[in-house]
Automatic annotation (TrEMBL):
<dbReference type="GO" id="GO:0071555">
    <property type="term" value="P:cell wall organization"/>
</dbReference>
<dbReference type="InterPro" id="IPR000713">
    <property type="entry name" value="Mur_ligase_N"/>
</dbReference>
<dbReference type="InterPro" id="IPR004101">
    <property type="entry name" value="Mur_ligase_C"/>
</dbReference>
<dbReference type="GO" id="GO:0009252">
    <property type="term" value="P:peptidoglycan biosynthetic process"/>
</dbReference>
<dbReference type="GO" id="GO:0005524">
    <property type="term" value="F:ATP binding"/>
</dbReference>
<dbReference type="Pfam" id="PF01225">
    <property type="entry name" value="Mur_ligase"/>
</dbReference>
<dbReference type="InterPro" id="IPR036615">
    <property type="entry name" value="Mur_ligase_C_dom_sf"/>
</dbReference>
<keyword id="KW-0573">Peptidoglycan synthesis</keyword>
<dbReference type="GO" id="GO:0051301">
    <property type="term" value="P:cell division"/>
</dbReference>
<keyword id="KW-0436">Ligase</keyword>
<keyword id="KW-0067">ATP-binding</keyword>
<keyword id="KW-0547">Nucleotide-binding</keyword>
<protein>
    <submittedName>
        <fullName>UDP-N-acetylmuramate--L-alanine ligase</fullName>
    </submittedName>
</protein>
<feature type="domain" description="Mur ligase central">
    <location>
        <begin position="110"/>
        <end position="303"/>
    </location>
</feature>
<feature type="domain" description="Mur ligase C-terminal">
    <location>
        <begin position="325"/>
        <end position="457"/>
    </location>
</feature>
<feature type="domain" description="Mur ligase N-terminal catalytic">
    <location>
        <begin position="4"/>
        <end position="97"/>
    </location>
</feature>
<dbReference type="InterPro" id="IPR013221">
    <property type="entry name" value="Mur_ligase_cen"/>
</dbReference>
Length: 475
């Protein structure tokens, strides 16, 4: 009889992926959540896994063999309380991935404050593409988003030697406050960026750096760390590695150096130079943004260092199709282009808007932001947020998501951001929710506009409401 596992918080990106991985292994999977939204709700539905809503003790009436507790679940959740009362066996997502899927495999882990999901997707696609000529490269993977080349966020292949995994620095579970990536024990790791983030669980930048230093300390001497060369924080976190450290970026002394970078619309091209052997490789990526070229370079550096032929690396990146909710075109209505991007931090917002400027030159760029992440909801980065949003021509800011959950002295004040942007000459307004934003934007949207919707949540259905309302005004 199949083992029954129940996931509390199943609609989280990684939790939904784990659900699919376990189902592929022959487990019977059930799960519960609240406020399910695409793309993970769609992925679960496609797998035939029903999401029980809302959380309820009754969801455990058919007692599971194992319960996976999502990291967003805390004491007081009715299902968690029943698990504890009845001593149903429980674990975390990261621990179960380690125990069930990583044993005996080469582990390639992508870590960093920004760029993890895209870089992991790129690396998985390079391996998958290389496997078309040599099955030895066939990967298993888990990504924190839906990779468009695969149409899924995970794939488990029995007997494959390589597992590619996004390594999240967020905490693991209510009973394990360490980062998820400490469970994965990488053979090779990428470190993209280290910045202060997740202000709800990290006190300051030093605390974030300690977490990444601990990850680096898990890499064996025979392993590799591929680390971004443009960050002092990354340099500090890499300094005491016992493994070989290879830097990547634009630095002249780096092992993997990017040169002659050009951007034409949504295509980026550059040459990658390898210091140790003098080799060069021309790379093209059908995505805008220097940050995406850096992500691709990190993935290429790992793949080339593991022995994948250069021509297969180049071909894979040239055919890469991005990740859901990363500069994703959601609609084009009357000449208005509506973009969805998973914004969680001022640096990510800055790079997104820079990429859109490069891809849509000469067009009016309107940024619509929902302060939803635990970092954006706090005032710690209020000034940096103003600096990032100032790259847009216009800004519409929503109210802070569930503001009551943030202490008032720590809470970001949207009006402060709006006022600061207007003082800089950037037209900015505050509209409390999706409906108010649609009412603000739809009547004055015009052909040529690019509307970047920046949120790491469902944002009140704005992705369908806005194009529908613009269509009405054009009729």
């Amino acid at each position: 009889m199949a083992k029954h596992v129940h996931l509390i918080g199943i609609c989280g990106t990684a939790m939904a992926s784990l659900a699919g991985m376990l189902q592929a292994r022959g487990w019977r999977v059930t799960g519960s959540d609240t406020a399910a939204y695409p793309p993970m709700s769609d992925q679960l539905a496609a797998m035939g896994i029903t999401v029980m809503e809302p959380y309820s003790e009754r969801n455990l009436d058919e007692r599971p063999d194992l319960v996976v507790v999502g990291n967003a679940i805390s004491r007081g959740n009715p299902e968690l309380e029943r698990v504890l009362d009845e001593r149903i066996e429980m674990t975390s997502m990261a621990a179960l991935i380690h125990d069930e899927f990583l044993d005996g495999r080469e582990r390639l882990i992508v870590c960093g404050t920004h760029g993890k999901t895209t870089t992991t997707s790129m690396l998985a696609w390079i391996y998958e593409s290389a496997a078309q000529g040599d099955e030895v490269w066939k990967p298993s993977f888990l990504i924190g988003g839906v990779a468009e080349n695969f149409g899924t966020s995970f794939h488990v292949q029995e007997g494959t030697r390589t597992f590619i995994l996004e390594g999240d620095e967020y905490d693991t579970a209510f009973f394990d406050k360490g980062p998820k990536f400490l469970h994965y024990f990488p053979d090779v790791a990428i470190l993209t960026h280290v910045e202060f983030d997740h202000a709800d669980i990290y006190k300051d930048l030093d605390a974030v750096k300690i977490a990444f230093k601990r990850m680096v300390n898990l890499i064996p001497r025979r392993g590799r760390l591929v680390a971004f060369d443009g960050s002092e924080n990354v340099s500090e976190c890499s300094a005491k590695a016992f493994c070989k450290v290879e830097r990547y970026g634009f630095g002249e002394g780096s092992e993997w150096r990017m040169t002659v970078l050009t951007q034409h619309g949504s295509t980026t091209a550059w040459t990658l130079l390898r210091k140790s052997d003098g080799a060069s490789l021309a790379l093209t990526l059908p995505m805008a943004g220097e940050h995406n070229a850096l992500n691709a370079t990190a993935a290429a550096a790992v793949a080339l260092g593991q022995g994948i032929p250069p021509e297969r690396v180049a071909a894979a990146l040239a055919s890469f199709r991005s990740v859901k909710r990363r500069l994703e075109v959601k609609a084009e209505v009357g000449g208005v282009t509506i973009i969805d991007d998973f914004a969680h931090h001022p640096t990510a917002i800055r790079e997104t808007l820079r990429a859109l400027r490069a891809a849509y030159k000469g067009r009016r760029l309107i940024a619509v932001l929902e302060p939803r992440s635990n970092t954006l909801r706090r005032n710690v980065f209020e000034q940096e947020l103003v600096d990032s949003l100032a790259l847009a021509d216009e800004v519409v800011l929503a109210a802070v998501f569930k503001s009551e959950a943030i202490p008032e002295r720590e809470r970001m004040e949207p009006q402060h951001v709006v006022d600061a942007l207007n003082q800089r000459g950037v037209h900015a307004v505050l509209a409390v929710d999706a409906d108010a934003i649609v009412a603000e934007l739809a009547p004055r949207a015009r052909a040529g506009d690019v509307v970047a919707i920046l949120s790491n949540g469902g944002f009140g259905g704005i992705y369908t409401k806005l194009p529908a309302e613009i269509t009405k005004h054009l009729a």
